[in-house]
Amino acid sequence: MLKRITVIGSAAFLLAFSGASLHAAVSAQEAQRLGNDLTPFGAQKRGNDQDVASGFGIPEWDGGFTEDMIPDEYRQPGQHHPDPFPEDEVLFVINNENKDEYADRLGDGVMAMMEAYPDTFEVPVYRSRRTASAPEWVYENTRDNATTATLLPTGVNNAFGGKPFPILHGTNEEKALQAIWNHILRWRGEYVVRRASEVAVRRNGSYSLVTSQQEVYFRYYDRDMDHDSLDNVIFYYLSFTLAPARLAGGAVLVHETLDQDKQPRQAWGYNAGTRRVQRSPDLSFDTPIAASDGLRTADDTDMYNGSPERYNWRLVHDEPVERFIPYNNYRLDNPEVEYDDVLQVGHVNPEHTRWENHRVWVVEGTLKEGERHVYQRRRFYIDEDSWQIAMADQYDRRGELWRVSLAFTKNYYEVPTHWTALDTFHDLRAGRYHVQQLSNEEPSNLDFSQAAPGPRYFTPHALRRRGR
Questions:
Q1: How wide is the angle at C-alpha 356 spanned by C-alphas 302 and 106, nearest 5°?
Q2: N or C, which end of the chain is more exposed by having fewer CB within 10 Å?
Q3: What CATH number does residue 144 fall under?
């Protein structure tokens, strides 16, 4: 449960933010809608009154995946998740030939993917299943945050352990920024360990795996904490490269902060060859990520991360709109499916993907005057049930669509949390793409069962010690 903190009330303190808006949180009466006509995360609980068997229907949210729905054999830590809907069939397929019939339900990036790969990229549409869910204590914290959380110029104040802004409010720009922070601060467990691979797939379909072990301690969701004791940290991230041999032993450590004006992101890298730990102050914004062969920027990771300060944000629509987005993609990390079958020329194999009709918030960021970034404009499609960015369209400085990112999500029902099974980043000009979180050929998937080791585990000194 969220521990109460002092709400900022000093006029002098507010003036210190140079006129930036700190819009008041919603009223207690408005927050009572959460769990009633709205889901605990603020989505519309009702469906859209269309037949789900048609592919256009959206059912009423009835709690998503809950613990009592999980068979005992599916509860093993780190196990690959069997598809809970093996009997579901493809209702129809959208491709380059018929895409105009569905243009009002497709993102611009998805349409562009069909044009770039007219013979191979397609969207198989299944019935919509609103599986997104979280533990009750996260819902309770979200209800508390609704009446206390406020925007800072480069962060969030008075929020902890749940979505900060389940009910968007204020100006259009404030609502858009709140939606971005809901994605950044979404529930993904408290501590997770993963061994997975990433690849940059070349134009001819060839690739080389880079395998690493990643550990994330989401301090923002540590139930022993509260807002005041977070020490401005959202999470600690540690990644050790395991293969190939020429990269093995290298490591990255990140301390992600809640208010990046108070303390910017801190990052370090460990070089196994020199056995030295060095600060990585440029691991943010549009810095290219080496393992992606330059196909992913630092803030492309997780569809979007880090400070949103370089963009002006707006909601493209005043309300969520219906779009076909990747959802319930259990087949993409099925251990019976080999990487060679998943990774095809230009994109992952559509045969193993699942798309559904869901309501999304469409948020657009335009680069501020005087700021620098390779993306002049970005458009995000944010699932209203989980606040996970499902799709991202990135535009270059000439205003042309350049890159498309897709998050193939699923529910890790043993937690439960709605997160990605696979993230893909497509460069439409280069005809190449990058994939993260490949785990089909690994002995395990994400392991949420281990106890968080605490902050001392995530220090530069520990990075050097573990890299030896």
A1: 75
A2: C
A3: 2.50.20.10
